Amino acid sequence: AVVSTQSTGKRKQELRKQKKSANKSQPTTSTTSDSSSEPPTSTVDRLINHPLTIPFLKLTLWISLLLFFAHHQFGSVFFLLSIPVFVWQSMEEYKRGPRELSAYSVFNKKLERLDGTFTSEQWERELKYGPAAVRKQD
Fold this sequence. Notes:
Largest sheet: none
Structural class: mainly alpha
Number of helices: 5
Number of strands: 0
Order of helices and strands: HHHHH
Distance between the termini: 21 Å
Helix content: 55-70%
């Protein structure tokens, strides 16, 4: 759990750095001679580009549809059918990097395991020879 939290944090930091470098590389469209590096933006532009705008619109649409179907006696059906959609959407949000390992070794190349993974082979060695006999296997 610690490894995945650290790698997620590192991934977020990398994405922030990429966004900053992309923003710096884009030419500014401001025609004023002030020293600010960002062009002035309107309130509408800031609302449209806000990171919570799309999730808010999705939630509003889902609640509206739930109320519509509940009014027509299909609220529970809509709710049950929306659960797989939420699961699918949450899996689409995050993509692993090329060198990032999955917590499940069957999804990694060459079935590579994370450090600290408790395996059946390790458990068997501990039962036969005691906990001191277990070493990290390469």
